[in-house]
Amino acid sequence: MRSKRLVYRPKLRPPELPSCIVNIIADYAEEKRLFRWINGKIYWSLLRENPAAISILEANLGKVDLDCLSSNAAAVFLLENNTGKIYWDELSLNPSAVYLLEKNLGKIYPRGLSPNPSVIHLLRDNLNEIDWHYLPENPAAISLLEANMDKIYQYSLFRNPAATYRFGDNLSDMRQIDIQIILDDMYVDLDYLSSNTVAVYILEIVPDIIYWSNLSSNPSMIHLLRDNGYEEGIFTNPAIIQSNKHEIYNLLVYGHVKNRGKGYKSNKTRNRHSKIWQNTGKYK
User: Which residues pair with 34 in a beta bridge?
Assistant: First the structure.
């Protein structure tokens, strides 16, 4: 009986590409989707506000009207050529639409600009048009707020990640703060605190004060939402969008997607060369 002849087949390696070319290809081929743990119905009326979901929205314009994208910071390029579809009250909140707002001041409601950090120069020049109820949410308006503490709705400060003086001099080191003093403060609105991106430590230490509706839109709390559930407001949260750019980069550089740790199925992943991103049909 003749023995089988062993044939040496060297592994094919991808051609080496300059890193700048790899990055360009990865940027071009990048796809985004919701994390798999976001289950059930997609609330397009909320997802339309999510700047990280712009590629998903572009692919599903039949489910999202252009006039519903006016507050989305990543959708300005779609609105530029469709100004008739702009909802100007919502555009007033859009930090990326400054030049559109400046060219169309007659169409906007001036008080609607108050929470927008990109138009602080307009607010300084038009103090009579400021809505002091919403200005405390504006992270670029700290000096205005400090000079007008008697005019503002102080509960709203707890939506503002830049209002660190309400917590102390060093908000980055929350462990130095007496949590009970903050919770007993008459100006603390616990509902608003749940939407503050720098209040992570307080909310983790005292989870009973969490207001889940506001927490669902907080990108700094995505780990709590993943492990404990969420409400429909999560569709406005930029942190729920997953990119496959890293997989594309590894495929171009190494010829396969690198092992990502425990539970990783390398054989399955390496056979995905012609289809990097598995289509779940979630957006159909």
Answer: 241
Distance in angstroms (rounded) separating the CA atoms of residues 164 and 259: 41
Q: How far apart are CA 232 and CA 28, in angstroms?
A: 31
Mean pLDDT for 79-100 is: 89
How many folded domains does the chain comprise?
A: 1
pTM for the whole structure: 0.69
Is 175 or 128 the better-scoring residue by pLDDT? 128
Q: Which class for 177: exposed (0-12), middle (13-18), buried (19 or more C-beta within 10 A)?
A: middle
If one counts every other C-beta atom within 10 angstroms of the C-beta of residue 202, the result is 22
Q: Is residue 41 part of a domain?
A: no
The pLDDT of residue 175 is 44
- Judged by DSSP in three states, 89 sits in helix
- Residue 253 inside a domain? The answer is yes
For the four alpha carbons of 58, 64, 67 and 68, in that order, the dihedral sign comes to negative
Asked if residue 225 belongs to a domain, the reply is no
Model confidence band, residue 177 (pLDDT cutoffs 50, 70, 90): very low
Q: What DSSP state is assigned to residue 32?
A: E
Q: Is 177 helix (H, G, I), strand (E, B) or coil?
A: coil
Domain hosting residue 12, numbered range: 1-31+244-284
